[in-house]
């Protein structure tokens, strides 16, 4: 029983620590596009991680029209094909848009953290979005105006997961060799 | 009753008019300097609406007007920083003198006169590019402070270069708090009289009893509150390690130390920083009760008091060698030989038992006192610290906090033998 308990503790560490660390470290936006029942209408949901004061540009493949959004008035504007949004602490924003060309084209999102001087971006079609809720590329140490470079989001969380597995293995292995006695817990 | 003549009345009226007219202008200048960027309604809070409006202007130019050359303005970047890091409000911070300073902009350009603050600010991970000027003595430490080699020399507490400070026009200048207090007070007053918008922060950062408190205050000033915990933990680990090993030793059983600075026969007593450090290492200075705090002692008394351990400090005065900037151990060994050859010293227990040690002030006098204390503890209580290698701790400090490529075992001279 105690062995199982120990294993559960190790497993919890594997699951929680990397997640918490990733929450702290990852920065950027991730996007999902879902078609609605209306013709040419899509629901776009954008999750924002650790960008408290910045901006977002969404370039559509053609003309678009916003039907509904939770972005406060005065925090966004746009022209025929591009929407710009001021990010001031929102964790998630959604848009219902009519955009006929989205059926076959990509949207290009670019975000900037103006407090930290970091930026990043992504291209996404609604088909890709359906296939996988593709997200989040993280760009660190780039300044506004720098060329965008991609970096795997695996980073610290992945390494932590591997380390945690090793630790879990280390904890479990001696227990296999020598069963723990009752009084060893005292 | 005699009335003043017309000329006198006219002069008084003129004086009052000038006073009335200039006071609001002056007040306006002062308040303008203390307004948050983009705080359009001047309520001392940058609201999301105030920020959003300028973010949209920036994004419009860049992404709608496709002007790739658009630059992020200082007001917007500062406001974004304040919004994200200070909840959109001014930040009031304190220095070691207890002076409260309210910041309305993040510090982006600072000058640091004292090396202890420069070292601690580096431990906290403050961006080196934000430091525009450093003290004369920091510039001389080319091995320890390589990244500051090309910064402007702003002089020292003894000879501050006000002209350079004014030329740099930094957001803030860091000077000593209580070390050379009169001179430091004078520097503060003069800087602020020459340019009242320059904030002056006072920190000593070499005293073990106040170091961590000072470091926490400094971390708030430079927005490194998250980083300070790691540094504090490092110091606490070493202090706890020593306390655990030496905490139960009674006063009578404490190792008795003769401590001598780079000046011959200048020792330390209660009230001095070195005495405090000997105590932290679990020892007691044989001249603990002497006066003043750094007494010049009679050589005869050393022979009478017969210390268990003898520590000689190098790194300043006539013994200005060793430490980070010198990798030739010969001179430190020479000092060791001279010490043990002093008249009558062959009868001292410390000499007979090979317990005479040379220690560099680089690891005792400043923020690295923790490394020096660890060496002292090991020399004072070799059995208790048998498994502790102070060089390991020293290397960890250099690698994790100072971020310089320096191998303490291969370079520098910190202890002898």
Q: Kindly report the average pLDDT value of chain B.
A: 93
Poorly predicted regions of chain A? 13-24, 133-186
- The Cα radius of gyration of chain B reads 27 Å
Write the element-wise H/E pattern of chain A from the N-terminal end onward. HEEEEEEEEEHH
Main β-sheet, spatial strand arrangement of chain B? 5-4-3-6-7
Instruction: Give the beta-strand count of chain B.
Output: 12
Q: Approximately what portion of the residues of chain A adopt beta-strand conformation? A: 25-35%
Biggest sheet descriptor of chain B? 5 strands, parallel
Could you give the order of the helices and strands of chain B?
HHHEEEHEHEHEHEHHEHEHEHHEHHE
Oligomer: heterodimer
Overall pLDDT metric of chain A: 71
C-alpha Rg of chain A (nearest Å): 22 Å
Largest interface comes to: A-B, 28 and 23 residues
Helical segment count of chain B? 15
Strand segment tally of chain A: 9
What strand line-up does the widest sheet of chain A have?
5-6-3-8-9
Explain what this protein looks like in three dimensions:
The complex is a heterodimer of chains A (186) and B (417). Chain A is an alpha+beta fold and 186 residues long. Chain A is built from three helices and nine strands. A five-stranded antiparallel β-sheet of chain A has the order 5-6-3-8-9. Chain A has a four-stranded antiparallel β-sheet with strand order 1-2-7-4. In chain A, strand 8 and strand 9 form a beta hairpin. The longest helix of chain A is centred in the N-terminal third of the chain and has 24 residues, at 2-25. The model of chain A is unreliable at 13-24 and 133-186 (pLDDT under 50). Chain B is an alpha/beta fold and 417 residues long. Chain B has 15 helices and twelve strands. In chain B, strand 1 and strand 2 form a beta hairpin.
């Amino acid at each position: 029983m105690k062995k199982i308990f120990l294993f559960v503790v190790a497993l919890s560490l594997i699951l929680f620590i990397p997640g918490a660390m990733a929450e702290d470290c990852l920065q950027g936006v991730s996007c999902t596009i879902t078609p609605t029942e209306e013709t040419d209408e899509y629901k776009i949901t954008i999750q924002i991680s650790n960008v408290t004061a910045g901006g977002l540009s969404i370039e559509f493949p053609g003309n678009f029209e916003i039907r509904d959004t939770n972005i406060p008035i005065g925090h966004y504007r746009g022209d025929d094909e591009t929407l710009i949004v001021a990010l001031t602490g929102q964790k998630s924003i959604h848009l219902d848009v009519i955009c006929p060309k989205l059926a076959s084209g990509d949207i290009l999102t670019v975000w900037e953290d103006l407090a930290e001087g970091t930026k990043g971006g992504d291209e996404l079609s609604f088909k890709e979005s359906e296939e996988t809720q593709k997200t989040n590329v993280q760009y660190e140490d780039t300044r506004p105006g720098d060329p965008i470079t991609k970096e795997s989001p695996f980073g610290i969380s992945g390494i932590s997961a591997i380390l945690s597995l090793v630790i879990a293995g280390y904890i479990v292995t001696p227990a296999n060799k020598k069963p723990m006695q009752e009084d060893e817990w005292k | 009753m005699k009335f003043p003549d017309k000329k006198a009345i006219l002069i008084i009226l003129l004086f009052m008019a000038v006073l009335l007219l200039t006071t609001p202008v002056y007040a306006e200048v002062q308040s303008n300097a203390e307004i948050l960027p983009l705080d359009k309604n001047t309520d001392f809070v940058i609201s999301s609406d105030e920020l959003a409006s300028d973010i949209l202007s920036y994004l419009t130019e860049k992404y709608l007007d496709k002007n790739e050359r658009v630059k992020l303005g200082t007001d917007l970047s500062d406001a974004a920083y304040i919004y994200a890091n200070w909840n959109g409000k001014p930040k009031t911070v304190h220095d070691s003198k207890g002076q409260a300073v309210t910041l309305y902009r993040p510090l982006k350009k600072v000058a640091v006169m004292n090396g202890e603050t420069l070292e601690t600010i580096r431990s906290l991970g403050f961006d080196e590019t934000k430091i525009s000027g450093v003290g004369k003595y920091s510039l001389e430490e080319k091995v320890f402070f390589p990244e500051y080699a090309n910064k402007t020399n702003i002089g020292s507490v003894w000879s501050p270069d006000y002209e350079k400070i004014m030329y740099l026009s930094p957001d803030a200048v860091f000077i000593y708090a209580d070390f050379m207090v009169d001179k430091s007070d004078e520097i503060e007053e003069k800087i602020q009289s020459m340019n009242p918008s320059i904030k002056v922060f006072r920190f000593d950062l070499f005293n073990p009893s106040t170091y961590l408190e000072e470091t926490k205050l400094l971390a708030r000033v430079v927005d490194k509150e998250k980083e300070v915990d790691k540094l504090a933990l490092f110091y606490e680990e070493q202090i706890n390690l020593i306390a655990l090993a030496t905490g139960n030793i009674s006063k009578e059983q404490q190792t008795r130390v003769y401590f001598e600075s780079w000046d011959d026969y200048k020792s330390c007593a209660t009230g001095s920083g070195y005495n405090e450090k000997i105590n932290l290492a679990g020892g007691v200075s044989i001249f603990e009760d002497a006066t003043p705090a750094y007494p010049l002692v009679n050589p005869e008394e050393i022979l009478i008091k017969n210390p268990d351990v003898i520590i000689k400090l190098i790194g300043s005065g006539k013994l200005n060698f060793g430490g980070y900037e010198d990798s030739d151990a010969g001179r430190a060994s020479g000092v060791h030989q001279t010490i043990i050859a002093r008249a009558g010293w062959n009868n001292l227990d410390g000499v007979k038992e090979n317990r005479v040690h040379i220690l560099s002030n680089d690891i005792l006098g400043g923020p690295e006192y923790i490394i020096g204390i660890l060496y002292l503890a090991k020399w004072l209580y070799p059995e208790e610290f048998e498994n502790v290698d102070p060089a390991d701790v020293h290397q960890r400090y250099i690698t994790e906090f100072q971020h310089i490529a320096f191998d303490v075992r291969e370079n520098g001279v910190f202890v002898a033998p």
